[in-house]
Design a protein that fits this description.
single chain, seven-stranded mixed β-sheet, alpha/beta, elongated, about 800 residues, Quinone Oxidoreductase, Chain A, domain 1, six-stranded parallel β-sheet, Rossmann fold, Enoyl reductase (ER) domain-containing protein
Amino acid sequence: MSAAKVITAYQGADGTVKKVSHALPSTLRPKEILVKITHSGLCYTDVHAIHYNSVLGHEGVGIVQAVGSEVTQFKVGDRAGGGFLRNSCGHCKYCLSGDDMWCYERDIFIESDKSRNSGTLADYYIGVETYLHKIPDSLSSQDAAPLQCAGATVYSALVDSVKPGQRVGVVGIGGLGHLAIQFAAKMGAEVVVFSSTADKEKEARGFGASEFYLSEDPGKIVKPIDVLIAAGSGYPDWEKYLNNKILARKGVIVPLGAGTSMDLPGSPMLFDGYSVKMSLVATRKVHDDMLEFAAYHSVKPTIETFELSEKGIEAALGKLQGHFVCFYDNSNESYPRQGLVSPPASLEASSDITPRPVGLELERSVSSKFPSIYFLDYQLYQRSIAELPRITYVVPPGLEALTKDIGENAKIYFKRIHPWMPFLSKILFNERLLSPFTPRGLEVSLLFACVNLVCSVPGEERTRTSEYLVIKSTLLEAEVAGVLSLRVFQAWILLCVYEIGHAIYPSAYVSIGACAKYGAALGLSRHSPSGPEETSNWIEAEERTRAWWAVIILDRFLNLGCPDRSLSTEEPVSNTILPIDDASWDQGTRKDNHLYTLSTPISPLMGRFGLMAQAASLLGRVMNFLAEFRDGTTFSTEEATILQRALAALVIVANEEGSARGIGVCTPTVLCLSARITLALHAYSKNPALKSSNYDPEIDIITGGVAYDMMRLCQWAISKILKDVDEEISPFPLSTAYYTAVAYLNLHYRDNNPEYLERLSELKTLLTICNERWKVGGKSYSLQTLPNSGTRLFNASLRSIFEDD
């Protein structure tokens, strides 16, 4: 076991805290795991523990450094958390029934095996595999630490006593209370809070409470509660609450703390049928469920940090002794909770960034402690740190102003933009990000601002608005500060959609490159033949998959005008996982037998986004195929034919899928048509044999079915828009409409066919109408100004695309 030879820890010493050191065991027992602690919480039990001369702390989270010979569920580099319960016999009636916390041979905090000095207020912790818990990826170590005891205690009590729809009363908004409110509300209960302080009402409602009453007069309650959670450091005045007007008959009393005598009045207990349900801590299974639930529903404790030292711990314990827990952290989050003791700076990087006004400042600097080893030696990073720091970044006032009306704009986004670019989880966005008690830090604020931006319709003359500039500069600043997260990546994608949709060049091309590199830094570009992990967080894994596919799609669409230009994303391999069906995605359901890869034969069951991914892959193959002939390589007519047939087959399937769902402008179809046009035009320019023959790419476009499909989509879109149907067309059809219009224009000049002119007029109408929403429509539309000449006009008609705003 290669680790430090000495463990530094903090233990109780007759009522005080003492720093001690002891030798690290030379070997681990078969089921033991060595964890390097990065975060450890404090709770009121530690106040009692300082009298027992044992290492303090039982809310620890850290990185696995070494494992015993029989450990199978953890590996070096995993994040693990240790709770109050640390071992049991494994074979008594309690252990066999899952109630291992009642085992007579249990090993719990304070009673724990002192030979291992197993407390979490130390730089290392040795735990048993069975009683260590994996931390979900979306749950930060800082938030996970207090949940190891406080969260597990509260969640277990609620699971045992509360049913969805019941009215749950919570007495106290301290360390346990504020978690009880969040958990109960997310479980579907109606939460009623009783507090001795009136100014706690706003906090209580922010956590999810629907009613608030002062504890001195709980009789004002409008309807009795079914369960009473006593979450304070001491027991409440039972005489005030044990009344069938407050606690309904057959109600359940759940004390979460261990006060002195409960002194329950016997008469109401008997005549109203009340029962008491004690809860020590969660079982192993319930503990794991709690972590997944907290991660999925964004249940977050609030945090105040202290130095990991004798003085720091005593200061934190002093606050706990004073009024259980009710103080604030230094990151502007105003929720009371148990104290969190942070490790020294050597164990965790941080970053402090000062607020800035809107606009650029040449004389300001940004500091960051992002671990450079993440890029310089990734294997060493995985073996040592294995977790990116949580960057503290003050949201600039200018950006904060751009997140207003996010509730209404989110509805617009999921109704109009999400159907053709469904990479955000509707469930996570509505239930987690829009939750009133989700801290709105930089990452969420950037995403909200970009949702608002992409839903906005810029004026006729300017698309590079002040809002756009604030967002773009903040994204750059976040990158410099070392902020690397999925939410910022999603914000980048939405910015690219805005730039592409409004023809903001060369910014769109540069942004998609930055976006691709950002996603690669997150590890999203790594191909894996396996599907998402079998956890309740499969939605988060799917969201990452969809985000990367969104970049691939935008990257290829962006380069339609010049397929020789280098793509920013590599070509997906055959076993790359496709997005799941869109209906399942929006409903939060998944069928494992419907997990497709790029090599799976195409089917309407793949859904629109899955077919878009297939179309983008084919478009990428077309671009790579055409790029091979830059240096005069012999053109392969056979390969071009294979690609055309594959695209035509995908169009048939995409149209079938769109028809089944009542979709007129099916985005996969549009991407396929764009790929076929690109192949036809550039095959002509690169193949000498075609140039010397009578081959005409415009005729190929018209007679090969591309124009027919485009005109059908065009007529459907115009009918919907002119009828003022609340439906939005994406920017994707506009490129195809443009090239189809140019083909009709050239053929009209050559043949003077009025039918071509009629088709041209319809395409002009589509581009003009869509220009009201996406300015790329107007950038592409200059057909009425072209010279009346019979020469080939592709280059001339492109000129308006390069005009500035």
